[in-house]
Amino acid sequence: MLSNKNKKFTIGLGVLLLVAGAVAFFFFRGGNHSKEQYTEIRVERGTIVSSVSTTGVVEPRNRLKIKPSIAGRIEEIRVEEGQMVQKGQVLALLSSMERAALLDAAKLQGDREHSYWQNVYRASTVIAPIDGQVIVRGIEPGQTVTTGDSLFVLSDRLIVKAYVDETDIGNVRIGQKTVIGLDAYPEIRVNGVIEHIHYESHLQNNVNIYYVDVIPETIPEVFRSGMSANIDIIVSEKKDVLLLPSGAVNTNNGRSMVWLKNVEPEGGMIPRTVRTGIRDDSNIEIIDGIKEGSVVLLRDAAFSLPEKRGGSNPFMPQRNRISR
To answer: In whole angstroms, what is the distance from residue 133 CA to residue 88 CA?
Structure first.
């Protein structure tokens, strides 16, 4: 039989092992590292694009108002809104006030007299000074106009003027590719390129913004001056790189960390420091630290509450900034 001393030692050892087992159980099964609280994500290769997203408006690059050189009456209009015209093309015929009065008097004397004076006293022409598109036609036949009236508005081509926050303007360069969408036609996406970055800022909603001219590669027929646009400016793009969901990478003391699934029989999790690159709305590039095919554990937010940490409130509106 065991002595009292040995019995006490055996009972104490059993209690110690039981407590240790319970702690291990709750740590690995019931605590924050429970398998039920994590989703397994396999590191894969893909393409990632870092971009600046902003808004803007469709407008003419050069907006030119056509005004008559003399006051008079519009006799004939030869173009319509939306029509493309060439430099030197006749847009309208205009009678001076004297010619209009003469033709009215001749018409009372008969068609022959009226036709004679029409040929003898030629109408003045309104000519397109540039190649472009008629975006406004502000007159009708028979209308009396002065030299201050705008007859037509021409645009050499439609562009998109993007409004870029000063916090993002440092990442924008001439020649960068863009993707343009329209609020009115969300199914249409048009590629473009940045042509010009304006030097003067403008205060908009208490934020300094810079105008950036974006030239569409093609102009869909539905484009209209004044339409609201959404612009994604492509800052950088990388292909065939290792990717993970952004939520799988945590920052601790300035280091980026992930939890790797332990493939050993005992299972569990292994912390691993990684080096990251660019990110988009959902993914982040992994430069070093893990390899393709590694299994990373992503915490399932449905099973845990966010930890109390310093910083911004995740439920407050966030400004749209480029990821670095």
So the answer is: 13
How do beta strands 283-288 and 269-279 pair? antiparallel
What are the phi and psi torsion angles at 16 (to 5°)? Answer: -60, -45
Q: Note whether 41 and 294 are within 8 A (CB).
A: no
Distances (CA, A) of 70 to 80, 93, 95, 148: 22, 12, 9, 9
pLDDT of residue 80: 94
Contact 227, 186 (CB under 8 A): no
- Joined together, the tokens standing for residue 261 give 């699934």
pLDDT digits (tens, 9 = 90+) for 126-141: 999 999 999 899 999 9
**pTM of the model as a whole:** 0.62
What is the 3-class SS of the chain, one letter each residue?
CCCHHHHHHHHHHHHHHHHHHHHHHHHHHHCCCCHHHEEEEECEEEEEEEEEEEEEEEEECCEEEECCCCCEEEEEECCCCCCEECCCCEEEEEEEHHHHHHHHHHHHCCHHHHHHHHHHCCCEEEECCCCEEEEEECCCCCCEECCCCCCEEEECCEEEEEEEECCCHHHCCCCCEEEEEECCCCCCEEEEEEEEEEEEEEEECCEEEEEEEEEECCCCCCCCCCCEEEEEEEEEEEEEEEEEEHHHCEEECCEEEEEEECCCCCCCEEEEEEEEEEECCCEEEEEECCCCCCEEEEECHHHCCCCCCCCCCCCCCCCCCCCC
